[in-house]
Structures are given as structure tokens and as C-alpha cells.
Amino acid sequence: MKRHILCLTTRLTQNSLIKTLPLSRFLSSKEAIDRRYHLFMLEKKRQYDKVGRIEKIEVQYKGLPNECTLIMNKDISTPYDCARHLSQFHMETSALALIDNTIYWDMHRPLTENCTLELQSFTCADPHQVNRAFWRTCSFMLGACATVAFKDSVPVKLHSFPGPDIRSGSFIYDVDLPSLGNWQPTHQELVTLGAEYVKLARLNEPLERLEVGEDLALEMFVDNEHKTKQIPSIAKANGKVTLYKVGKHVDISKGPMISTTGQIGRVAVTAVHKLNGSEDNDANQLYRFQGVALPTGVTINHFAFSILTDRARKLNTARSPVQRAADCEESESIAMKA
Amino acid sequence: MNQAEVSKLVSKLRIKVPPKHRKLPNPKGPEGRLDKLRKTVTGLIKYERIELNYNRADEARQYAERLISEAIRHGDCHKPTMDTANFWLLEKELVHKLFKVLVPRFENSSVAYTKLYNAPKPQYARVLDKAVLELKGNPYPELGNKQTNNKYFIQNILLDAAKHEYRQAKYAEVANKIGQAGNETSPVNTENAEKLNEKPMSS
Amino acid sequence: MALAIRRSTSDIFCAAKWFIRRDCRVLSTLPEKAEVEVATVTKKEKHIRTRGSRNSALENRFVYPEFLPDPNPNWRNSLREKLERADMLKRRNQIDIPEFYVGSILAVTVADQHSQGKTNKFVGICIERKGCGLRAEFTLRNVVDHQGIEVRYDLYDPTIQIIQVLRLEKRLDEKLFYLRDALPEYSTFPFDMDPEILPEGTPVPLNPVQVKLKPRPWLERWERQDLKGVSNIEEHLKEKDRVRRELRATPWEKYDLMKQYRQTIPIEDQNDIWAEVNSQLQQLHMTRKKMSRKRTFSTPKTQLG
């Protein structure tokens, strides 16, 4: 297996050296996903190896059942590992970690220094940030769902998703489907999309975070012209791009996100709306995928849920990335926010 | 047709009491039944949260409630109550716990002293219903998701936003109607209609 | 109205004891020891009364137990209970239903179209009170012509004309069914008995008399019922009965808190009921008192006349 990956990477690096950009543009979407996934894993392994000698840090845990101090590995242990020391309950329910009472930290992001740790679930007293992370994750997963759901003959190019706005009633992902000029999804197709979403969510994959350099990010998203356009502006600040991976799907997002996809409970993909852009923009039309979801363990009356789905069917008025010619930059800024 | 017993006075239980007791079948008959329940009540007072079969839990809950209410009503200087506590609590240090810990805890409570949850069970298995019985005010974390009316929960935010949007739509509709009516009656006075249009939107 | 007649064991036996009986009865009702006990008991009673005086409405439950509904929740119906209470108060406005207990001696006059003068008077000791609401009933027992007679009356029966308490007292037990197997003198009361009027404010006296049972066979297994009002129960028992009594004993029953609970009406429910009827009951009580005072003045005159 290792050898296989190594072989593949050498081929990939060769490819990148030769700068066969036009070739990689015609990668089928499945190949592109695999390629991105392997690059992600390699980079992750590289960063892991870079840690070198293992140092210990003290993590002061606050909360139930009692406060305690955990001795963890620097740059390796994650809040999820801390939760594993506590109980299965903590592993399953905590969605986000709060470091030093200020920073919201992903559950699968290694801790870097001594800190205090609080685990936040969807039912904690003030779940504002957890909700935002949940909504962001739902958008992210909608992208993953959209890439998987279509047939191979339909190329899917993810564009971006705006920052989470729960009060808008739906999470969204803007997708470019160049081969589908005028697509109106039937009810059956929406149901299929929803089923695909649920299938992905039930895999209960952890959401892994990785910060990579601009070059590598461009390399990974070489097949997607929208992302390659967004990456330089995202990396403007510190030269890093934050990536998230769930299963084999890798996407750009600012984070933080919830712990696993298993925490997404009841979900419905409610609508796909067409967004028409201006002529000069290369992507002159996008499809806005919309959905609504609730965390696992939230039971809600079917009538109440039908109200939510009905509302999520209306076009979400979040700013469209292709609305105006001058929006080109804005779309990147949206992607940055996400 | 019976006459109510008048020689004893009891406080009303805050739980639902079924009209008949459960027999909890036992070779020793009613005595064995009470023995079973004594063990459960002792366990409940000792551990404050126990998991057991639903039938026994529901039955033991009533006895535990009665015991605590008697202890609250009569205090620890009342001989028959002390006698009852001695019978029901197999471990004698728990008698102290009943009068010194639980009575102060529940003295001013206006709700039941215990809580009974249905415990989960495998979906397609033929097993007895399980339940979790606990004393209120125990030191363990909450079992149920009690604060469902926290307005910051995601479902509440979503529903609240939906409600808000619906109301806005209704206000706009009503304002439109009024505006149209105004237009029909006095086409000159359009400013008022516009004002009306704006008002509910801002509120 | 049901008439329960029980034949006494043997007429010969009764005839033989005919003369002795009166003496026995006099001795049994007024023993010297009993006097002392009465005094102590009354003290206790007073203690209870003073403690209970905090909530005098709740004390009604001893005097008017039939106002409490049936404790069996299957037979509860709040509307029916309310209507019944209203009807009971109306009936109590019509005739004086006095305070009496199991063990009190009562004289009841009922309308009887077949008897001379259209009324029928029966005197006896109350051996049982049961039922609630309009169906409340009590049973009187007497021995007439060596024949034990029990009459069950409905308390709110419209044919009842007078209920008079001849002697207000309590006994040691809740039910006095053992009088059926006791010597007849314990349940023999003359029909021309004079009412004993207690001074006002005295607590209801407790008669600690312990009856003597006749030899077996008995109607019930009295030895298993933990009776306090029977003196000679051990004399008639065989070893076998004692063993079986031990086997059948249920000492855990007094700790069965839910069994007790299911037999009683909780305080909170009682408070509601008494709040509803207490004022009317008190008013009735006061008017009856005034009436009876007047009558005490009037009755000697008629007697003199």
C-alpha cells in the first residue's frame, strides 16, 4: 500500500514538474478527488513527521464529570483524544473545543501548547459557535454530496460557500455544472441528493483539518479554475490555506468545523436554484444547492421540520458570487469567510 | 364501595399512582415483593441513580416517594416513621442520609422527589422495558436534554427565523391590502398608505 | 334496608343463662379497672385534639367520614362526588344525623308502612360503618328475645326519621363483628334505654371493654384479626390454630406504604373537600346545638306532664 502511494506520488510530482496543466484540467472528477486526497494525506504525513521529538503539554480539562489535568502530546494530541480519556459520551457529543475560554478549536486539530480545554456540544448553554460550525460543516458536506451524486458524464466544479447564516434558514453551496445549461431538479432528484447526503453523513467520518502552503493548494485544486482563482486571495494573509477533509473529499474552508459527520442528524436537500451571472464572468451561471439539517439527538416534530424545509426551498439571498462583474473579488472574499 | 381510612393522614404524591399495585411475581408472595422493593429503594437512596426493569422501577419509585414524604412530614423524632425508615432502608447509615440529607434537600420542593426515564433498548430484541430511576438533585450529569427551550439551540433559531419571516410576509400582505383600499377610496391620499406599508416592516 | 338475622346457638343455653346474664352485663360494662383506663385514654384523646386543633377542618374526617370519596381511583368521579356532597348536606338539613362511631349505641326510627303507627324503632350498637357519599351505611346489632338481630341502615335513607345517639362512645376496634360470636349480653340493649348526655366539650370516651367469646365454632377466624376488644380468645385456640396464625401473619403489611396510601385520601385532597363543606357543616352543628338546648328544657316538662 505504501509503495503504491509512493509510486503514485512520484508520478504526480513528475506531472506537476512537467507542468501538464491542460492535461490535469481534463482529469475526471473521480481521479481529481483521489489525487487531492493523496496529496492531502502526504502533506499530513509530512507535517506529522516534522513534529520530531514528542513533547508533553498539560491540558486543564474543565467540565463534567470533574475537572482534571491531562498530559498530552504536543502537536499530535487533539481535543478528541482528550475526550477519549473521559468517556464515550464525551467523544460522541462534543462538537467543538474551547481553548483558553477564547479560541474555538476543531476536535481533530492537534493542540500546540499548554491550555485549558472545554468540550462544547449542541446542548451547551451558549451554542452559538457550535451552531456556526455545524452550519459550515453542513455546507461543506453539501459540496461533497454534490461531487459524488452526479454521473461521471456531468463534470462538477465546486465554487464556494458563504459564511454560515443560520437565520437565513438554509445552508448553501454554489456549484458550477458547465454541462447542464438549464437544469431544473425534479423532486426525485432532490430526494436522491438528500439520500446521498445522508449516506455520506452516516459514514461517521471525522473532519480533519490541515494548513497547507499556497503552492500545494493550487496544485491540489488544479482541476478547478474557481478554486485556483480564490486561493491567492485566501493565502494573502499568511501564505497558508486551511483545508478540510471528510472521507476522500477535500475542500477549502476557514473552519472550525464539528467533530464527525455522524453529528449531522436529520437532513434534507431542499432546492437547487440557478444563479445567473454577468457575461464577462467565465462562470456565467452557478447552481445554488440548498438544504437544512439538525444535529443528531435533536428530535423535532415532522410538522415543524416541514416548516423548516418549506422555508429552505426559497432562494437563499446570500450574496451570489457571480452577480456582478465587480463581484469577482467578492466571491473570493466569500470563500475566505467560509 | 369502601370508606377512606381516616386514622392515617398522608401527603399527596406528586407522581401518577396507578390504581392497582404490581405483584412483581415472587415465590414468597407479598412479603417477597416488599423485599425486592426494599432492595431497590435502598439502592436508590444509596446511589441516587439506578437502572433497572421498568416495572420494578415504577413500583419502587412510589415507595421511595412515600418514604421521603413521610420523612418530611413527620421528621426524625416520630417513632413510627423511624420504624418505617428502618424497615425500608436495609443499610442503616442510609437512615441518617434520609433524614439529614434528603429531607433538607426536598423540604421546599413542590414537585416529585424522583425522576423516571425510559432507558433505551435494542430495537428488535425481546427484552423487558428498562428504566433509569434517580433522585432529583443528584450529583450526576443530566440524563435528558432538559433545556430544550434554550433559544440559542439551532432548532429554535431556525424556527424563530421561520416565524419571523412568516410574520413579515403577513404584515406586508396586510399593509398591501390597506394600501390598495386606500388607493381605491381616495387616490389622493397615497402618502398615508405608504407610511402604513413601512410601519409594520420596521417593527 | 336489609335485615340480617342470626340464630343464637341454642335456646337451652340461653334459657339457662337468662338470670345470670343481667348481672354479668352490669359487671362487664362497669368494671373498676376500666375506669382508670378511661381516664388515661381521655388524656390521650385530649392531646390529639389539641394537636389537631390547628387544622380543625381536617378533624371532620372522624365525624363525617362519608364525605371523603372512595379511595379507589377507578371509582372516582369528581362531579358525582360534588353532587353527592351537596345532596348529603341537603339531607342533613332535613334530619339531624348526629356524630357517632363504631361502638356507639343508637336508636333509629324509620318509616314502616306495615307497622303500627307507621314507624319502626330499633336500638342497637353500631358494629360497622362503611361506604362513602350517599351510599354510606351503618349496621346496628341487638339481641331481642335471645335472638341476635342486625339491621343495616343507609345513613341518607329518606325513610329514616330519627337517628338518636343513646350512648356516644368508641370501642377498641374498627369493626365489632366479633360481637356475633361473643356472649349475648355484650350486644343486648334495652329498647327503652335513656340517652346519656355528655357534658359539652368532653372528648368522645373510649370504652375499653373486652368481650368474652363463646366457644367455637365461630363465624370468622377471630384469632387472626389482631382484635383488641376480645379477652378470652386464647382459651379457645388449639395448638394448630396458633401455628396457622403465625403462618398467616402479615407483619410487613404495616410497612406497605403504598397500600396505606391507596386506602386513604391525601391531605391536599381532603383540604379541598373540607373547604367546600366545612362552613355548612359547622353551621348545621351550631343550629342543632341550639335546638337540643331548647329540647333539654322542654323534655323534662313533657315527662312531668
TrEMBL record, chain A:
GO terms for molecular function: nucleotide binding; RNA binding. Keywords: Ribonucleoprotein, Ribosomal protein. Gene3D superfamilies: 3.10.20.30, Threonyl-trna Synthetase, Chain A, domain 2. The keyword Ribonucleoprotein applies. SUPFAM superfamilies: ThrRS/AlaRS common domain. GO terms for cellular component: mitochondrion; ribosome. CDD domains: TGS_ThrRS. InterPro entries: Beta-grasp_dom_sf, Pro-tRNA_synthetase, Thr/Ala-tRNA-synth_IIc_edit. PANTHER family: LARGE RIBOSOMAL SUBUNIT PROTEIN ML39, MITOCHONDRIAL RIBOSOME PROTEIN L39/PROLYL-TRNA LIGASE FAMILY MEMBER. This is 39S ribosomal protein L39, mitochondrial isoform X1. It comes from Trichoplusia ni. The lineage of its organism: Eukaryota, Metazoa, Ecdysozoa, Arthropoda, Hexapoda.
Automatic annotation (TrEMBL), chain B:
Keywords: Ribonucleoprotein, Ribosomal protein. GO terms for cellular component: mitochondrial large ribosomal subunit. One of its GO terms (molecular function) is structural constituent of ribosome. It holds the Pfam family Ribosomal_L17. Residues 179-203 are annotated as: Disordered. Residues 192-203 have a biased composition (Basic and acidic residues). The keyword Protein transport does not apply. It comes from the Eukaryota. SUPFAM superfamilies: Prokaryotic ribosomal protein L17 (SSF64263). Residues 182-191 have a biased composition (Polar residues). Gene3D superfamilies: Ribosomal protein L17. GO terms for biological process: translation. Belongs to the bacterial ribosomal protein bL17 family. This is Large ribosomal subunit protein bL17m. It comes from Trichoplusia ni. The gene is LOC113495686.
UniProtKB/TrEMBL annotation, chain C:
It is found in: Mitochondrion. Belongs to the bacterial ribosomal protein bL19 family. Pfam families: Ribosomal_L19 (PF01245). The gene is LOC113499341. It comes from the Eukaryota. This is Large ribosomal subunit protein bL19m. The keyword Mitochondrion applies. The keyword Ribosomal protein applies. One of its GO terms (molecular function) is structural constituent of ribosome. PANTHER family: LARGE RIBOSOMAL SUBUNIT PROTEIN BL19M, RIBOSOMAL PROTEIN L19. It comes from Trichoplusia ni (Cabbage looper).
